[in-house]
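Format is sequence with structure; example below:
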Amino acid sequence: MDKILEDSLISEPVSDGPKPFSALDINDVEDFVSNKIQNSLANPSWKILDVLPARPLQTVAVQGTVKIPRFSARYELFYLDAEIDKTRLYKACQDLLARNEILRTVFVEDEGRCYSVVIEDIQVPIIEYEIEDDIETFSKSLCNLDVQTRMPLGSAFVKFMHVRAMSGHSCLLFRISHAQYDEICLPVMLRQLSQLYESAPVEPSTPFSAYTYHVLNNALPKSLPYWQNLLAGSTLSILKPDIPITNTTHYATSCTFDISSRSKDTTIASLPTAAWALLLANRLKTRDVTFGEVVSGRSIDFPSSSPVVGPCWQYIPFRVLFQPSWTALDLLSYIQTQHLASSAHEAVGLSELLEHCVDWPATSWFDSVVHQDVEHVENLRFLGAECRMETVYPHMEPLREWKFQAFVREGGRRLEVEIVTVESWRGVAEEILGELEGVMGMLVERAGERLFGEKG
């Protein structure tokens, strides 16, 4: 094994961090890497720099990439309005892989467990297409065709395609799996691609393996007691209506609320979570609700001054045990306090909570999850060429939960909320959206009033 470690460190800067392969809970690491992992790679000659257990949501995303429907396969389309230096662009794509180890990470399974395998060098050829016209239609059709091709374990999920029209306009297609990014780091990589093309200073970043080692060795052991205490005696709140699901097509309904008169004593981020907690309490006639919330996973005490490039995001539980005397402002304050407390422990995955912290059924998943909007890259420049960005998901994710999404508008004066469920539950979603109007009115306009009647 020492020879593998020595070879691995030759091409990577030596740091004071954990030794490669040290995250593996395997008796004979050398045999495991040489005979199991190496032989599971699409190219057995690839040089392995490290092998780590995949994080919980990474494992979900890997399955959503290798199997149909491939809901974790995402395509970023760069529409370029002028002639571009093809050689320079292709080099920038390869340099992006060289710079970010998560793009050189492939995934394998052994005995039901998923592993991330960091490869020293992966050359991803750029597939070229020359067409007459209508770049946009062809590029989107190409996404729909490509997603049908196999993306097996052990192979590179990253792919580049370049479509050029006779007019000189072109489109670069960048395929990536959600096992390799989240919505925080993807904009970093997109900007890096532009910077690499322009030979400009490149935005710094931190490898995902460094983050994973920190989570496994430091954050996880410290976080389990917090979650054990918060979730003691809890159960997941179930919103599912007694209506058969005959149509699984996604259905979304939205509304925008004026929140300009809200109390400034709490953050806007507290508002959507408070609204969903209060709605569940009213609808389920309970004073103890637990649901999911999407978090960045980046608020833990990870010592890095640059953004981690990799899927740090998590679904974590949010529990509200309502008190009879609470006003809307009390609820908002409680939400903000729990947000702050949980942020230090947000790197824990649901499977780890199920194993160590709660007595929920082992197959539990959140019935509803609160999402809050993050940054999106819509335009870039490539040496004077305007570049419009578009994201394509050819396959929709099979819904396992209600999604309650929030988008801050007009500099914080308005809040757009969206409920996503299946088409069969359209009527229930519209009912919930109507109920949210009263809930938001309470939280924004009548924050000093008690939430419940005298009997609580």
Q: What stands out?
A: Residues 224-375+396-445 form a domain with the Chloramphenicol Acetyltransferase fold (CATH 3.30.559.30). Residues 1-14 have pLDDT under 50 and may be disordered. The first helix runs from residue 2 to 10.
